[in-house]
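U., I forgot to send this yesterday:
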Amino acid sequence: MYALNYVRPDSLAQALALLEEHPDAKPLSGGMTLVPTLKQRLAAPSHLVDLTRLEELRGIALEGGVLRIGAATRHAEVAESAVVRQAIPALACLAGLIADPQVRNRGTMGGSVANNDPAADFPAAVLGLGATVVTSARRLPADDFFVDMFETALAPGELVVAIEYPLPQRAAYRKYRHPASGYALAGVFVADFGERVRLAVTGAAPSVFRWREAEQALGAGCDVAALDGLHIDPDLLLDDERTPARYRANLVEVFTRRAVAALAVR
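Result:
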């Protein structure tokens, strides 16, 4: 690890000022990706700006039909929250499936969303629910937030403050876990809002995406039978020796059917 400066601001305003003052600084939340990167000397920030203790970035609240979760809220807190379990049970379920207990008790929702790892779980919920990403500068619809592998619409120095989730009538998340890491080789989040259905896929492509053909099929009847004969193009998906694109396509199709079937249970 290269030498760097560690700072712990007392407020969000102070954190933003530090990031503006030091262009090579990096914000630190759970550190699940950043810390290993530093250990391998793949990054050399001038400062680490620790966001984990900022009360402005924490908390879970339900108000006006919107579930707002602070960016520094840990995965385990989302999974165990009675408010989340009542409002959007699928979101609590997703958080409880992330990696392992060590990661769930350290990693944060905002860090996962801002990092946009291709196999991360939370981006599927954000996109699948059509959430709003609240940043230190603006409000971004989920459809405009995720750009590409490890890339989002965040500008330099801009921080995720909270995620606001609209409440669906019912939702479900199902994924095929990598046996070692717990990451999603294919994860599908489906949300039924009554007048429309949204379906987001993570783990299978360079970035989380909506499978719009499946959404259209489910809009005519939100049950597994509506997916009969529907296939995803493997050319859209990641391809490697261990997990070929055709295998990923099969996983997406299988776990889409499982997620939709789980809606009936809800």
